[in-house]
Amino acid sequence: MSETQFGPACRRMEWLDPFYKAVWEKAYADAIPISGTFELTPRCNFNCRMCYVHLPENEIERHGAELTAKEWVRIAQEAKEAGTTWLCITGGEPLMHPGFETIWQELTQMGFFITLQTNASLVTKYDKLFEECPPRACKITLYGSNDDVYRDVCRVEKGFTRADEGIQMLREMKIPVELVSTIIQQNLDDVDNIIRYVGGNRFRWIPNINVRTAGRGVDVDMEHLRIKPPARENPADKDEGKEKYRMDPDRKPCTYCRDYRLGYWIVWNGYMRFCSFMNGPDIPVREKSFKECWEELVEFQEGLQWPEECTECEYRWNCTRCAALFDIEDGRLKIRDEFCVSRKE
Length: 345
What we know:
Elements: H1 3-6, H2 18-30, E1 35-39, H3 57-63, H4 69-82, E2 86-90, H5 100-109, E3 113-118, H6 127-132, E4 137-141, H7 147-153, H8 159-172, E5 177-182, H9 191-201, E6 204-208, H10 235-245, E7 263-267, E8 271-273, E9 283-284, H11 290-303, H12 308-312, E10 327-329, E11 332-334, H13 337-344
Parallel strand pairs: 1-2, 1-7, 2-3, 3-4, 4-5, 5-6
Antiparallel strand pairs: 7-8, 8-9, 10-11
Helix pairs in contact: 4-5
């Protein structure tokens, strides 16, 4: 296995500034948590069919207590001391956290490079806040080109109208905007219109067809959402790409991720994890210092192995997979039966 395959993702980013590449290399070597995501809340004013985080307000208490603004600020201070430079603020809809304004002001004053991930429908209410404390960038979910599609996908009224107002406000403020679209059955016919919207506004756009559950208490009806990617026209293309995506079943699961030894995710109810899609580990940031949590997370990454079934499976050399496609049970990866069925097919 080559050094590139085991090394940090920055080694494969030829476009990355040499200074930042050197910073990420150092962080990888020393296991410094240079990049983090704060998932502020499961609250959201949209009810997107494919969301694995959003919970109705009357169900939140059943899954835990939201970290308060004071707790987020404390975690951020300790994260900065540990080396965190880049932060993504997300949710749910992060602007719906009761203490969002306090959290945002405190975090921006700490000097983080912050990306705000939002549906953009509420940002116009915070125009003064973002003028005073602008994000480094905004990653905005775009699920259609009109209110009818948003009604079907996000189950809200005037969803596109409100999102577009927020997008245009950010554009006028010269805040970099990136649009992200999850394509499901309910907005598949609108893709051409979405592309026209993106092109007309000259935004960077990331389409995605992956719909996942995350074992976090939210049921996602994948059967009626997921679309199948088009078949390859040239069978030779499939063989040509096999070697590129071939996975070593003896290589540790977390080493395939760009956040390996570099990044973390803190979920709304107070746990540090390796990935947003994973239902563990549950490393409590309320009870431990950030440094203790990070050290425990790195140890978890280093010790995690593929399930025994994967190491013995006849398809193990041709199965493209990541740890996020499994559940965490007793600190180990547990296979989801539907995953195996789809891969073998």
